[in-house]
């Protein structure tokens, strides 16, 4: 067993982290990690012009990889130890109880037995087969699982390469969009759009990196687990029949339970979301597509000679954008008393609402929120760009935004986009959104005066700090030709919501 222990303890040292097999023509790169020459050469070709170590992600400049002869010798030694392990003496094949040869295998008890044991009460009613026949049957089962596991391992390696390629392409796309945002920044007339775009680019950058790291880590773990299981099962199949049949059912169970869970990869839809801004409309699309086309061709290789041309082109595009831009209309929102929950108290002018202590006796109305303390605005929108300003008074425990006309009004309500509700809310002093997963918004303080922006055709619901125009959050939505209403919720009796009329805007 000494050879077996030594071989097992050396498995990690002689395993390539890319193919998870024994090193073949091992080489060492600048950071000190070792790989098969064919594996690292393939990674280098796929990662040009920049190349990083698949193990530690350090950037590598070299192109010629020196061989590691000592490691090659160690691989040969471990292979010799494995062969010695297979040739070790077989287990004692004599029944300890009857001193007869162990020629049979009991399926129920999963143990080797002799002919005398076969006729005993303990095994008389059991299924008993010759050991070679039992070994062959289980080997066939394991070989079937091995075939599937090897295929899944190949798919996993393909997914890993796809993730690396997709991440690189997304980062290139992100760089191009950052350049577009820099051109947009040249025009002070687009300051609000610039802030929102840069905020989204930052969020997208973090999301790409986070998803890449999560997927890469998960893929590495899945790859390592499958590699270890395949190695264990291959080693198990090389054992003599008596030793192989020991604990064989456990090996089969582990093979059956092993599955490859594919992660959710990043998609180009993430990048496309960055372009959409609250003022985007049909009038913006033609000049913006021209700028996109120009920058996509030039940005990866742009040198100083293009700088003046980009500046001129960006300013010209900004001019044409402004020619086709129609500012959003201020919506003089009032609260609809017919939709207000019986616990809400509305002001006479419909501009303020708070949560009361007692339920009011209100007439039944199909438009009223019977279960949740919600209220809609009196006017809905099915076209155009609109905004309104609301102020929170008294503290947390409120939500504000927009909702579909068909929103659920008669039972418990989940303030989520899938319910046709797009809101920000302040539960206990911090701003949040109901997305998947729920977002805690990184704001400096809690804005008390909030501007809600609705672009119906553009499918946008955006929230800004009304005092400094800083972006809070932006939803991309599909309204499906349904009317959209201002939407408000109160949970805390200390909180109030006040709507600002046009003269206070």
From TrEMBL:
Q: Name one Pfam family in it.
A: zf-C3HC4_4
Supply the Gene3D superfamilies for this chain: 2.60.120.920, Classic Zinc Finger, Zinc/RING finger domain, C3HC4 (zinc finger)
Q: Where in the cell is it found?
A: Cytoplasm
Question: Where is this protein chiefly located?
Answer: cytoplasm
Q: Where is the B30.2/SPRY domain?
A: 313-505
Domain B box-type stretches: 90-131
Which residue intervals define the domain RING-type in the entry?
Answer: 16-57
EC number(s) per entry: 2.3.2.27
Task: Give the family, as the similarity comment puts it.
Answer: Belongs to the TRIM/RBCC family.
The protein's name in its UniProt record: RING-type E3 ubiquitin transferase
Organism, scientific name: Alligator sinensis
The gene name on file is: LOC102381259
């Amino acid at each position: 067993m000494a050879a077996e222990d030594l071989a097992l303890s050396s498995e990690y040292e002689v395993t390539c982290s890319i193919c998870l097999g024994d090193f073949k023509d091992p080489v060492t790169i600048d950071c000190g990690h070792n790989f098969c020459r064919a594996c690292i050469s393939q990674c280098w070709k796929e990662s040009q012009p920049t190349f990083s170590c698949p193990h530690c992600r350090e950037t590598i400049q070299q192109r010629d990889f020196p061989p590691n002869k000592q490691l090659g010798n160690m691989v040969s030694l471990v292979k010799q130890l494995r062969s010695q392990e297979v040739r070790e003496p077989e287990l004692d094949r004599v029944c300890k109880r009857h001193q007869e040869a162990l020629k049979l295998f009991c399926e129920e008890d999963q143990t080797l037995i002799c002919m005398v044991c076969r006729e005993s009460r303990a095994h008389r009613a059991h299924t008993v087969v010759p050991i070679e026949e039992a070994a062959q049957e289980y080997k066939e089962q394991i070989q079937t699982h091995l075939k599937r596991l090897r295929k899944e391992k190949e798919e996993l390696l393909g997914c890993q390469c796809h993730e690396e390629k997709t991440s690189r392409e997304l980062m290139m796309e992100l760089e191009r969009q950052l350049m577009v945002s820099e051109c947009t920044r040249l025009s002070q007339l687009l300051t609000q759009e610039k802030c929102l775009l840069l905020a989204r680019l930052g969020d997208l950058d973090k999301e790409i990196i986070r998803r890449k790291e999560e997927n890469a880590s998960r893929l590495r773990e899945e790859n390592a687990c499958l590699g270890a299981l395949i190695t264990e099962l291959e080693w198990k199949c090389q054992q003599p029949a008596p030793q192989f049949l020991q604990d064989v059912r456990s090996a089969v169970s582990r093979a059956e339970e092993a599955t490859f869970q594919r992660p959710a990869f990043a998609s180009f839809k993430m990048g496309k979301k960055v372009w959409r801004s609250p003022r985007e409309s049909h009038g913006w699309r033609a000049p913006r597509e021209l700028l996109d086309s120009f920058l996509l061709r030039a940005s990866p290789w742009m040198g100083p000679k293009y700088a003046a041309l980009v500046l001129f082109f960006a300013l010209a595009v900004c001019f044409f954008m402004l020619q086709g831009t129609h500012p959003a209309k201020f919506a003089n929102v009032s609260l609809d008393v017919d939709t207000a929950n019986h616990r809400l108290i509305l002001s006479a002018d419909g501009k303020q609402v708070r949560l009361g202590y007692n339920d009011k006796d209100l007439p039944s109305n199909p438009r009223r929120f019977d279960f949740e303390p919600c209220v809609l605005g009196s006017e809905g929108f099915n076209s155009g760009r609109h905004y309104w300003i609301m102020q929170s008074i008294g503290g947390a425990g409120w939500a504000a935004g927009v909702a579909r006309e068909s929103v659920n009004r008669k039972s418990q309500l989940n303030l989520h986009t899938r319910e046709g509700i797009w809101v920000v809310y302040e539960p206990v002093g911090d701003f949040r959104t109901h997305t998947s997963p729920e977002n805690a918004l990184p704001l400096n303080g809690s804005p008390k005066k909030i501007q809600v922006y609705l672009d119906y055709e553009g499918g946008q619901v955006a929230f800004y700090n009304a005092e400094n125009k800083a972006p809070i959050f932006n939803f991309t939505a599909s309204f499906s030709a349904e009317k959209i209403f201002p939407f408000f919720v109160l949970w805390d009796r200390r909180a109030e919501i006040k709507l600002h009329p046009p003269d206070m805007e």
